[in-house]
Design goal:
Length: 230
């Protein structure tokens, strides 16, 4: 009986060890994917695009692009999907707001165009470029995703709605719009539109739903309370 228990405990330890090994491997890949030459060059290129307009942006900065890229890769890993798409997701996240360097509004196609030109000069695979273009265009608010890659980028792009810094980011976007369009947005009107956005938004991945649903509920309730007070 003691021998049986010993063997069972040993088997459990082996299982746990294998699970931990897989988790550590995935975490290792998450960081290594951003050390691939084409990803490094993409980061450098997009960062250079944002430098001249940094003073006009409070939310859509290069840091936001990196946040989306890292979150997209993280979601892909936590959904336990095949690792060969990680590079594509990382590049898509990095380029997804690069169109702001050209013009502020109606720049979704520009994002995709900038990525296409850069990657073609990098002799990047043409089929992968097409996929990246579609992923980038999928970040348009009203666009519905067509596949898991597009679902993940949409979850990653709107992830800031369901974090502790939600109100800070909402205020940053308001300031950014006011500066770039030379307008003044009334506080109540702005946050009413933000509330409408939260109602329209939905989670596309199981991971985003699991990790952000409770925070979404809390942020929406706080936003409604805030609107009632102003």
């Amino acid at each position: 009986m003691l021998k049986f228990k010993h063997n069972k405990n040993l088997q459990l330890k082996n299982i746990y060890a294998k699970i931990l090994a897989v988790i550590y491997y995935y975490l290792y890949l998450m960081h290594k994917i951003f050390e691939i030459p084409v990803v490094i060059e993409s980061k450098n290129y997009v960062n250079d695009l944002f430098i001249p307009i940094n003073d006009n942006l409070f939310f859509h900065k290069f840091e936001h692009s990196l946040e989306v890229a890292y979150r997209a890769v993280e979601l892909w890993m936590r959904e336990w999907l095949w690792i060969e798409k990680l590079e594509i997701l990382a590049i898509s996240g990095i380029f997804h707001d690069s169109g702001f360097s050209i013009q502020y509004d109606n720049n979704e196609i520009i994002w995709a165009w900038i990525a296409k030109i850069f990657l073609e000069n990098f002799w990047y695979n043409k089929e992968k470029i097409k996929i990246i273009k579609n992923i980038i265009i999928a970040t348009t608010l009203e666009k519905e995703p067509n596949n898991i890659l597009e679902e993940i980028i949409k979850d990653a792009d709107l992830d800031n709605l369901w974090r502790d810094d939600f109100f800070e980011k909402a205020q940053d976007i308001k300031k950014e719009i006011e500066k770039n369009k030379n307008i003044i947005l009334e506080e109540k009107d702005w946050y009413t539109n933000v509330l409408k956005l939260t109602y329209k938004q939905k989670f596309y991945t199981k991971t985003e739903n699991k990790e952000r649903l409770l925070k979404k509920i809390k942020n929406v309730e706080q936003l409604k309370e805030f609107l009632n007070e102003i």
